[in-house]
Amino acid sequence: MSVREGSLEAPTRHPLDWKNPAFYEPEKLFAEMERVFDICHGCRRCVSLCGSFPTLFDLVDESPTLEVDGVPKEMYWKVVDQCYLCDVCYMTKCPYVPPHPWNVDFPHLMLRAKAVKFASGKVAFRDKLLASTDGLGTLATIPIVTQVTNALNKSGAARALMESTLGVDKTAWVPEYATAKFRPNVARSAGFAVKDGQRTPGKVAIFSTCYINYNEPGIGHDLTKLLAHNEIPYVIAEKEACCGMPKLELGDLEAVAAGKAKNIPALAKLAREGYAILTPIPSCTLMFKQELPLMFPDDPDVSAVQAAMFDPFEYLVARQKDGLLRTDFKTPLGKVSYHIPCHSRVQNVGQKTREALEMVPGTTVNTVERCSGHSGTWGCKKEFHQMAMKIGRPVFRQMAEPQPDWISSDCQLGGRHIEQGMGDTLGKAQLKHPITLLRMAYGLPE
Q1: Domain containing 34: what range?
Q2: Which of 134, 207, 291, 296 is the most exposed place for a label (fewest CB within 10 A)?
Q3: Same structural domain, 188 and 292
Q4: Residue 205 forms beta bridges with which residues?
Q5: 14 in a domain, yes or no?
Q6: DSSP string of 115-133, one letter each residue
Q7: DSSP for 343-377?
Q8: Of 307, 275, 278, 281, which is closest to residue 292 (Cα–Cα)?
Q9: The sheet that has 430-431: what strands, in order across it?
């Protein structure tokens, strides 16, 4: 093994070898976990990122040998359960990621462990249910069911029952369901001329995501208003299923593949027709930009979608650099505390949302670049919710410090978690998604 310390080279990623039967062999998994855990134990640079690393180091420090070889293999699952696949350790902290010869990819090792656990049938019904965003959304947005579901989610007695039966923490924020979904009610695009830029296609396809479609469709409608104001023609993806991120976090890779089979053909057609594909939730964008290409590295349709995929603010800022974005802002936003979600940070596009908000005169942006602790379905589970709140405390404090007018995050679920965690320190501030803030800055009506 090389003794070269660290690496200054840009991280690269190997494809996920999930179709290889050896991927699911527990003995080989544990051998690789012991190798990587030993490297992590000797470094400890990631101790502040999430619960996985303190859990690992505590296990080592409490072992009879004070080394990884003294930790029973069954205790490794405690480390796995604390990982919610944010990818920040890989992209921002670890000095031993490829091309370093030690080849440490901690998130994908945890993903492999989750896949082994799922394949062994040891995943709880609760976890499978929470990851079924399309199924839950379709059921919960039936009109009478919507009213009942939202009422139950606000009922202390119902939440206590949900905690005791399903293990969803009774104090955790859970999303409401909209009475009118986004996709069936989106405004048709006007017939604007397509104006391609050097950096940007001049027409957009929107992949709305489960959350926008079922929970907060207003964010999607605000995105269409931004596009219309800038005379960018848009369409909605013809077919859409969940991007697969909740199933990926569960280790259900076959379900991810099934979702890919539904989404990719229609999206690849749009990509080849010259559309930029925008998704308003960072985790969904990351799924198409990174995880599916790593699962299906030889699929040309996946590669086409990857190349066409944009974070909305990545697209808008590139549009501005092409001289094709209107800057006729009418309403200053004042002080905005803006949180960058982990799944935005690891896309390596820079702070494009901050750049866009700072285009608005009379606006100052306090940028917080740290994990909020929400982490998809992980943060609402009874056994992890208090840890999620603990991880988020530095974010809650930093968001409150400037006494902002608005708090905002590209991940609206993370934003809701931050809103809850800030409590009394929220003050006069209101939570608005950055897309909504930009719509407000243009003076466009709701």
Answers
A1: 21-119
A2: 134
A3: yes
A4: 235, 277
A5: no
A6: HHHHHTT-S-HHHHHHT-H
A7: HHHTT---SHHHHHHTTSTTEEEEEE-S--S-TTT
A8: 307
A9: 363-368, 334-339, 406-409, 430-431
pTM comes to 0.91
Assess whether 419 and 345 both reside in one domain: yes
- List the alpha helices (DSSP H) in 170-252: 210-214, 217-229, 245-250
- CA separation for the pair 136, 140 (Å, rounded): 6
As a whole number of angstroms, the distance between CA 424 and CA 433 comes to 20
Rg, Å, the chain Cα set: 22
pLDDT tens by residue, 239-282: 889 999 999 999 999 999 999 999 999 999 999 999 999 999 99
- pLDDT at position 78: 93
- Residue 155 — pLDDT band, cuts 50, 70, 90? confident
* Residue 348 backbone phi and psi in degrees, to 5: 60, 40
Q: Looking at residues 84-94, what average pLDDT do you find?
A: 85
Spatial separation of the C-alpha atoms in residues 436 and 438, rounded to whole Å = 5
Mean model confidence pLDDT for the chain: 91
Q: State the CB neighbour count (10 A cutoff) for residue 70.
A: 13
276-278 vs 204-206, strand pairing mode: parallel
Average pLDDT over residues 172-176: 88
* Residue 336 and residue 404 in contact, taking contact as beta carbons nearer than 8 Å: yes
H/E run at residue 183: none
Asked if 175 and 215 touch (Cβ cutoff 8 Å), the reply is: yes
Number of domains in the chain: 4
Q: How many CB atoms lie within 10 A of CB 235?
A: 15
Task: Tell me the C-alpha distance between 204 and 234, whole Å.
Answer: 5
- Is the domain of 74 the same as that of 110? yes
d(CA 16, CA 274): 29
